[in-house]
Write a structure and sequence with these properties.
Distance between the termini: 15 Å
Largest sheet: none
Strand content: under 5%
Helix content: over 70%
Number of helices: 4
Length: 96
């Protein structure tokens, strides 16, 4: 998996769009596991994983919306910050 953003505006946008898809798949997977577990006790760990995934997905979605309203030059100027956001999102996905 790529751990650094590509250099162009279109590539940066595509990387974050791909992250949204990965978060959607992971959220569905964790939700399904939660539904399949017996309802004997509260599933706190699963709920925490799911909430963390949803929160990070919302952050990625916000970055993607920001990218959509900024100019290409502005996005490229903020590439360093977006790279950090991208790496953090990948860490959350990997940990879940």
């Amino acid at each position: 998996m790529q751990t650094q953003l590509s250099g162009t505006y279109e590539d940066i946008k595509a990387n974050f769009e791909a992250l949204i898809d990965k978060f959607d798949k992971k959220i569905l997977e964790v939700s399904q596991v939660s539904r399949n577990q017996p309802d004997i006790r509260p599933q706190t760990a699963t709920a925490q994983r799911l909430n963390k995934l949803k929160l990070e997905r919302a952050k990625v979605k916000h970055v993607l919306l920001d990218i959509g309203i900024m100019t290409k030059g502005q996005v490229l100027d903020l590439k360093g910050q977006y790279d950090e956001d991208y790496k953090k999102a990948l860490r959350v996905l990997a940990a879940s």
